[in-house]
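Example record used in the benchmark description.
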Amino acid sequence: MSAKVLSIIEQMKTLTLWEATELIHQIEDTFGVSASPVHQQIKNHLIETPNLYDVILEAVPKSKKSAIIKIVWNFAGEGLNHARKLVESAPVLIKKDVEYRRAFAFKQQLERLGATVTLHP
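Model output (structure tokens):
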């Protein structure tokens, strides 16, 4: 599969049920096709997919620790000392029941700095 298609698939994984439905209708209208069976499968998948995730910081590179503390501080909504303790305690639960898009964006931010983050439904 091409990198472009993989990128589109990854973006589609973040869609809400409403957004996925809109996308399907736009594809049907634009290309004159029917996606009824596919539409139902996507609906079923999105309904079964959990919306809330626990965010777990697994590992932190020492060279990026201070930058990661700042990101965790903003994300967790706690004090700076709390964020520092969390980062120094990895592996550790950063926050429970976070909406998928927010959790995934946080995960990507930290992974760009070399941290390891997992999301658990």
